[in-house]
Amino acid sequence: MSSISWPALPPYESWRGTCDTLHAHSQLLGKLGVALAPPEPELQHAALQLTGRGWETHPIPAPDASGLLNIALDLRTHEAVVEFSEAPTRRFPLTPDRPVADVTSDVLSAVRDLLGDFEINLTPQEVPWEVPLDQDHEHRTYDPSSVETYFRAALRAAIVLAELRAPYRGRSTPVNAWWGSFDLAVSLYSGLPATPPSNDFITRNAGDAQQIEVGWWPGDARYPRPAFFGYAYPTPDAFSKAQLSPPGSRWDNELGEFMLDWDDVIAASDPHMAALEFGRSVVAHGCTVCDWDPDLANSAMGEPPPVI
Fold it and tell me: How many CB atoms lie within 10 A of CB 220?
């Protein structure tokens, strides 16, 4: 892994316009999942995926069961893509600097042409702005070079997270691309329920099971630089009282998470193994202080190894 180049990713503020525009585009994909996909525990039906071409929905069954719908942000060709198993693919450019409102209108029109009318909430969530996506002319900056650098970094992070979750023998998620927080994350579950910390829709549904989550984001206004992160829910008092590995890992009191900055990762002799070490350290520590089944904890470290 050490021979594979990991790109330097700039601080959030230096590409904020493009990052926020891309984030806003991802919200449309997630909201289509919410509106059209069959509901799943912990809002998994609303999660997106990062693939070799960009951010995508999982295949969504048409309401009349006539086929499967997939919507993507192709970060290689810089297009929004609407695919339906029973119709030709439709593509809409994200450049040059097209407003979120215009892209939203194109995508919704195409989906409604294929599936008929449906209700969808276009108010953005978990972001500082409130203008509905179909009225958002502010977010329009789209620099292809910045997007390509982000995409290369995101793919490296996704590969680490996939390797982290692979041996775990309890319930786990795939590597989810979350459009609210604009991050990538994998969740491991103990199998026991938890009481959500609040009654709002997202928290009530996402926080109803014991879990350890490890993820990555490109930075935002709260934490303006790219980083890996990890936390446990529910969070015992002892969770923050640890020094995880590799060097550079630290607890952030404001976020309530362990952090490992991207710059520390790419400075390592083997960035992939440094990031994976961080994830495994979070999981091992979380399983211990949260008193999870030791067999689950061991499986996350590859013991016993998967059957080949």
Answer: 20
Which pair of structure tokens corresponds to residue 78? 């810089």
**262: enclosing H helix or E strand:** helix 262-266
pLDDT digits (tens, 9 = 90+) for 87-124: 999 999 999 999 999 999 999 999 999 999 999 999 99
- Give pTM, 2 decimals: 0.95
**What burial class does residue 5 get, using C-beta atoms within 10 Å of its C-beta: 0-12 exposed, 13-18 middle, 19+ buried?**
exposed
Token code pair at residue 5: 């180049």
Contact 281, 244 (CB under 8 A): yes
Distance in angstroms (rounded) separating the CA atoms of residues 205 and 46: 11
Cα distance between residue 26 and residue 5, in whole Å: 26
Task: Evaluate whether 285 touches 244 at the Cβ level (below 8 Å).
Answer: yes
Residue 217's nearest CA partner among 207, 227, 209 is: 227
Find the helix or strand (DSSP H, E) in which 72 lies: strand 68-74
Q: What is the pLDDT of residues 61-88, one digit of tens each?
A: 999 999 999 999 999 999 999 999 999 9
